[in-house]
User: What shape does this take?
Amino acid sequence: MAGILENMGYIKTDDKLNSDLIILNTCCVRENPENKVFGNLGALKSIKKKRPEVLIAVCGCMMQEKGMAETIKTKFPFVDLIFGTYNLHRLPELIENASNSKKTFIEVWEKEGEIVEGIPVHHKSDIKAFVTIMHGCNNFCSYCIVPYTRGRERSRKPEEIVKEITGLAKQGYKEVTLLGQNVNSYGKDLGNTSFADLIRMINDIDGIERIRFMTSHPKDLTDDLIMAIKECPKACEHIHLPVQSGSTKIL
Assistant: This one.
């Protein structure tokens, strides 16, 4: 999101009082962050009253919950834009539509679409970069809402990932962390490339020195993946496994 906004000419600031655009990116994996959203929105009411021209948007996983967008619209009518997790690539159009609308503009897609490539990405470090390799999750653990808010697993094509990381290496990045709700199930929807295969491909990219990944699920930790970590000198000997993944009862 930061990359898209920078590409549009926006500059990040912590000064809410003088901002042109305030975006609240929400999370619904835990209850506490949800509760904070309502408090944070309430605090923005006075800013909107003083500066009606500022555009206030709410997005993220929480907006994918059934009825949540309408709840936000009703409780906080000063919010200009509400959108979900599946249409981030449309952010420039959404901001324009909200700016021209006299009421809350809502666009929350109920179903995930194809992965859109080429979205500008902002990296906080000049050495380390996070690279999303897939979206969604198919596990439906008893305690987790992620499959309902982030959709089913969709893997990026390996050539697109390699292209992105090669570009990062040319910019001087040395370490990449591969991201996904369940990274080690990467490629199951593609049929011809496994996560272990992807690790090996990235290991061959000149300039990259360290490869990390998160988050993992025990059922997808294959022997081939373990061998790939052993064989690839750039793969860090570290596996991120949530504590609850060790309990069949909780899962």
The two ends are 32 Å apart (CA to CA).
